[in-house]
Amino acid sequence: MKVLVLGGDGFCGWPTSLHLADAGHEVIVIDNLSRRAIDLELEVDSLTPIRPIGERIRVWKELTGQEIGFINLDLATEYDRFENLLHELRPEAIVHFGEQRSAPYSMRSNAAKRYTVDNNVRGTHNVLAAIVASGLDVALVHLGTMGVYGYGWSGSAPIPEGYLTVKVPTPDGDIEREILHPANPGSVYHLTKTLDQLLFTFYAANDQIRITDLHQGIVWGTQTPQTALDERLINRFDYDGDYGTVLNRFLMQAAIGHPLTVHGTGGQTRAFIHIRDTVRCIQIALENPPARGEKPMVFNQVTETYRVRDLAELISRLTGVEIANLPNPRREAAENDLNVSRDRFMALGLNPTYLSEGLLEEVRDVAQKYRERADTTKIIARSTWRAGMETSPDLMKND
Ligand code: NAD
Ligand code: USQ
Asked: Which of 48, 167, 266, 291 could bond to 308 as cystine, CB 3.0-4.6 Å?
């Protein structure tokens, strides 16, 4: 299958591009390298020494003989170029990772909020409009987030895969309707993913675009079998307060002996998935698209749930690194339960990678290998959801 991977230079997109190429698909990466530009803006770098995209692609070709294409294009601002590319390349499928994906970054300033909305919503709408204009029957797979559901809405009922059946009272008695699960975003970034959902609902109904929206949990780990083939193919490892996600951050902090930065009580329960399962899920979704005319197909792309403090305690027990309970810079429930339905990928054959000591050690080993590259002044999360929520007077003495 000819597949365009939008955002294919990023943390999830690069290993997915290699995985799909390895599985025999023809892959073309489209990326404006904005994530690398944000590293420069934040004066931070991936803990792992990621190589330029041209070198990554050359090394993959040297090792496997497979060509991966690359086009530097901004999905949000270069609509005409993107539409022309669809006419020229005639892809059968598109995987869309190409958005600003950090919640803390999206809350760090007014400019960052506006950039995140402009980039993500315009980009996704441009992709949909260009598919319609191309006249192609392209299957679109989009990376959404578990965060569209929010944390705490469903109580003890499992969060369904995208849709909820509700009873609507009418004078003639109750009628049943299926609706999109109510959105409850916790950041401007998460808000953009809830807006994406409405765009998908409209274009699937109006233009019969085949759309799969993957509501993914927090991705952890760094390497896949393909990125581990050669150091020049290594995947990104974000550890800083804006882009680093919680489990990878704790493992990196353990590797350098930094106290584990638990926000608040650590009672937040979140959904997780290992990067090796992310790439498998994308392949499964690509190979099992909905039919034309169907509503967007939603999968909850998660394999397990954990409470933040339980992860910190586990890593502290394994490594001896202490835990620091910091004031929470975010506006989020101090404690929540999370019960997620995840039947669809299981039914399609996903064999989940569960968190184990071995896998935790593998990530810690990667972090230990590159520990000299870490800038410890970038570890504490400084983006706050509202003015006055600044964090960690004590821990900053480690900076
Ligand atoms: P990332 O920032 O590492 O990668 C995103 C890529 O998209 C980058 O290479 C960036 O340069 C590119 N991009 C952004 N805007 C673009 C634009 N306008 N035009 C072209 N390219 C653009 O992020 P990631 O961690 O790989 O996440 C990929 C997707 O998966 C995101 O949409 C994110 O919301 C979703 N997701 C990620 C996680 C996670 O834990 N990393 C969890 C759930 C969902
Ligand atoms: N947290 C800590 N300490 C840290 C970092 C985070 O306690 O050092 C806490 C946060 O306060 C939050 C939880 O851990 O309660 C998760 O934070 P995170 O930064 O790991 O994840 P989040 O901001 O939710 O975003 C990440 C990705 C995003 C994706 C989302 C999936 O950056 O792209 O959409 O995970 S989900 O969380 O399921 O919505």
From this structure: 266
